[in-house]
Each structure stands twice: as structure tokens, then as C-alpha cells.
TrEMBL record:
Pfam families: BMFP. It comes from Jezberella montanilacus. PANTHER family: UBIQUINONE BIOSYNTHESIS ACCESSORY FACTOR UBIK. The gene is ubiK. Keywords: Coiled coil, Cytoplasm, Ubiquinone biosynthesis. Required for efficient ubiquinone (coenzyme Q) biosynthesis. UbiK is probably an accessory factor of Ubi enzymes and facilitates ubiquinone biosynthesis by acting as an assembly factor, a targeting factor, or both. This is Ubiquinone biosynthesis accessory factor UbiK.
Amino acid sequence: MKSNAWFEQLQQNVSNLVAKSPAADVERNVRAMMGSAFNKMDLVTREDFDQQIAVLRKTTERVSALETQIRALETRIAELESKP
């Protein structure tokens, strides 16, 4: 157990050292800069994107069905107009 306690102490010391180092400041600055850039972009969540894909698929299927229906009606009209 002594080696485990020593390892945990070492890990804690390294974590404290990194937290107080300039690397932590750089990481915070980069995160802030990236957060600001992302906020300026017109981004959507993955959930919203997936929902819009589902709506688009449904709409495409409906348009295709309506096109088929219109072609059938046009054919029917042409047949009726060709009869004397």
C-alpha cells in the first residue's frame, strides 16, 4: 500500500504542477479563443442536424410521390383529350 500512496502523491504533485504552470494558462486561453470563434459561427447541434435530415428525407419521398401522381394525372388527361 505504501507504493500506491506514493504513486497517488506523485500524481497529485504532477497535477498541481501542471495546474500552476503556463501550460494551464495557454490551455485556458486557447479554450476561450475557440469558444469565442464557435459562438460566432452559425453552428447547429448534431441532434438538430439529424432532425433536419429526417425532415428532408420525408419531404423528398413526398415530392417523389407527388411527381408520380402528377405524371399519372397528365397521362389520364392526355388519354381523355385524345378521345373523340
